[in-house]
Amino acid sequence: MGERVTAFFDIDGTLGWTDPAARERMSDEERKLSPVPSLAVSDAVRRFVAAGNRAFICTGRSPLDIHPKMAALPFSGMACLAGAYVKVGKAVLRDVALPPEVLACVDEVLAETGAGALLESAHGSVDVRGGTTGARQPSPASVAGALERIPGGRAHKVVLPTPAARLVVERASGAVGLSIMELELGNSEVGLLENCKGGAARTILGYLGDAGATYGFGDSENDLSLFEQVDMPVAMGNAAPAVKAAAALVTDTVGDDGVATALARLGLV
């Protein structure tokens, strides 16, 4: 198969998928976990690594919210929280949380609008004011209360209803660069502009030094910065149009095991 190569894999919509409406009906513990990869995708990742290659998770999720069956695959490391937290083996290469002034702005907007939010950190996720649906009770009534439940009291990004997220960005972006990314069910995530998947991939590749040819697999617009850092960007069949347009290869959908299909087509398994 030639020299060792390195691949970065998004989770939701790429390695696995859970219907958003079905997820909202799950228990709080289940709801926060990532989807589980299919047997075909799991086998393909294992064979990819067994051939001497490196595989990395590249996700917006907290590392503690990755399903144990996903985390058990032989990944060399992970870029989580949309690039805010990066780890290779036991080495933490990046850990950049939201500054206090942004979190204070989030608290202010939640109080004004009556909305709830989800704080995400390297140590897990905590709902505020019932979460984005307002129904996740009991939960802290303030961001400060939620931070008390997170070891270290830090949050790396926040998910809010989109109108509230836009207010936060409008008010706080003068002091710090913020990004906003629309998600499902009328929600958006807000994080630091400097935290992105592309920056995380660049950090990992710099640390490795001998990464070989590089591949990136994704489906959402937050994967576009990752695509800019790899030799072969691969879009899922279910990817957003802009993601497909930026890809060198469009594979099958996540429901049809597109990651496994692409790895085989590229001669990597």
Which key features would you list for this structure?
Hypothetical Protein, Haloacid Dehalogenase-like Hydrolase, Chain: A, domain 2; eight-stranded mixed β-sheet; Rossmann fold; 13 strands; 11 helices; alpha/beta; five-stranded antiparallel β-sheet; 269 residues
Mind sketching the topology for me?
Blueprint: E1 6-9, H1 20-24, H2 28-31, H3 39-50, E2 54-58, H4 68-71, E3 77-80, E4 85-88, E5 91-95, H5 100-113, E6 117-121, E7 124-128, H6 143-147, E8 157-161, H7 162-172, E9 178-182, E10 187-192, H8 197-208, E11 214-218, H9 224-227, E12 232-235, H10 241-246, E13 249-250, H11 258-265
Summarize the structure in words:
The chain has 269 residues and is of the alpha/beta class. The chain folds into 2 domains: 6-95 and 195-265, HAD superfamily/HAD-like (Rossmann fold); 100-192, 2-Layer Sandwich (Hypothetical Protein, Haloacid Dehalogenase-like Hydrolase, Chain: A, domain 2). Helix content is 32%, strand content 22%. It has 11 helices and 13 strands. The strands form 2 sheets. Strands 5-4-3-2-1-11-12-13 form an 8-stranded mixed β-sheet. A 5-stranded antiparallel β-sheet has the order 7-6-8-10-9. Strand 2 (54-58), helix 4 (68-71) and strand 3 form a beta-alpha-beta unit. The longest helix is centred in the middle third of the chain and has 14 residues, at 100-113. The model has no long low-confidence stretch (mean pLDDT 93).
